[in-house]
Amino acid sequence: MKVWILFIGLLITGLVEAAPGVDAFSVAPDGEGGQTYTLTIQVLLFMTALTLLPGALMMMTSFARIIIVLAILRQALGTQSTPSNQILIGLALFLTLFIMMPVFNEVNQTALQPYLSEEMNTMQALEAAAEPVKSFMLAQTREDDLALFARIGNFGEFNGPEEVPFSLLLPSFATSELKTGFQIGFLLFIPFLVIDLVVASILMSMGMMMLSPMIISLPFKIMLFVLIDGWALVFGTLASSFQI
């Protein structure tokens, strides 16, 4: 989280850096022996940029794929609101931090620490912080999705991954993550669907058509998921699905 605040903060600082003499706030006498304090546009822009932090966390990390898979898994189990949305989001958030930790560490070493020690200016630190994030996103993005948005936006051809701009990479990465998340969710859904079909066929053959198959299949699906250590398998598969 600290890395993303730095990333957005460096961007806003770089935008206002070209205006020398603009302080975060100004102090002026009020004519009655006191002082008045006025916030400048710099602080306003910085606070506004913080509202982009949730969007960056969801669409520039592994969060989207993880939450999609967990939501489809809950639907396949048929447990309605168990686990709750808050628990799913918490699981997705902490698993995202685990997966993104190598990227965050690289940003810390190459951008945050040199910036704090005044070895880099704002724009240099921003460029250094963007490189690990960009490399992570490129590793998860399909070439077909990049080609699609490059054709739509008339970006032309690129000689290498380093030439792909963020404006093209962001929608391509989001599309690839959605596609991958639904593919993993589909594979998770199949075993539970088979259990539902078997239970429904047995109930119909016994003439118990008024009994909902979901009531009978739910404990079997939960038992199967627990016996195979499903949560560990799902989290391990999600973590290993990212190329870092």
From TrEMBL:
Plays a role in the flagellum-specific transport system. Coiled coil: none annotated. The keyword Transcription regulation does not apply. One of its GO terms (biological process) is protein secretion. The keyword Protein transport applies. This is Flagellar biosynthetic protein FliP. It comes from Candidatus Thiodiazotropha endoloripes. Belongs to the FliP/MopC/SpaP family. The chain crosses the membrane at residues 42-73, 85-104, 184-210, 222-242. Signal peptide: none annotated. GO terms for cellular component: bacterial-type flagellum basal body; plasma membrane. It holds the Pfam family FliP. Keywords: Bacterial flagellum, Bacterial flagellum biogenesis, Bacterial flagellum protein export, Cell membrane, Cell projection, Cilium, Flagellum, Membrane, Protein transport, Transmembrane, Transmembrane helix, Transport. It is a multi-pass membrane protein. It is found in: Cell membrane; Bacterial flagellum basal body.
